[in-house]
Amino acid sequence: MRLNEITYTDAQPVEGYGPGFFRIGGEVVEGGLLTGPAGTGGWGGYEDRAPLLALAGQVDVLFMGTGADVAHIPADLRSVLEEAGLGVEVMSSPSAARTYNVLLSEGRRIALAVLPV
């Protein structure tokens, strides 16, 4: 079996998560998390749109995690993000974090906005 070492660019993979937090880059972020090419920090949820819109032109796809279970995001939020040129993929936060990590390892232009489980 051949093993390949994964190297990441400036963005960091999600290392873990639990009730109310995410661990990324050796740091714990309480509450929502936004990470991508511009860095990592807290995210205030669906009403915190400015940092999501700032990703336009930097990423092709924004993975949005809706918590422990998959749920619809507000329709107006999806419309605003898509009008800004961001592809939006909605799934549960654990699924979004795993998908983000895989595509990040492939060098894709992606970002992740997740609500805690």
The total of beta strands comes to 8
**Proportion of residues in β-strands:** 25-35%
Mean pLDDT: 92
The helix tally amounts to 3
Return the string of H and E elements.
Answer: EEEEEHEHEHE
Blueprint (SSEs and pairs):
Layout: E1 14-18, E2 21-24, E3 27-30, E4 32-36, E5 39-43, H1 50-53, E6 61-65, H2 75-83, E7 87-91, H3 93-105, E8 110-114
Parallel strand pairs: 6-7, 6-8
Antiparallel strand pairs: 1-2, 2-3, 4-5, 4-8
Brief summary:
Helix content is 22%, strand content 32%. The chain has helices at 50-53, 75-83, 93-105, and strands at 14-18, 21-24, 27-30, 32-36, 39-43, 61-65, 87-91, 110-114. The longest helix is centred in the last third of the chain and has 13 residues, at 93-105.
Describe this structure in words.
With 117 residues, this protein is of the alpha/beta class. The protein is built from three helices and eight strands. It has helices at residues 50-53, 75-83, 93-105; strands at 14-18, 21-24, 27-30, 32-36, 39-43, 61-65, 87-91, 110-114. The strands form two sheets. The chain has a five-stranded mixed β-sheet, sandwiched between helices. The protein has a three-stranded antiparallel β-sheet with strand order 1-2-3, with helices on one face. It is globular and about 40 Å long. The mean pLDDT is 92.
Protein traits:
globular; 117 residues
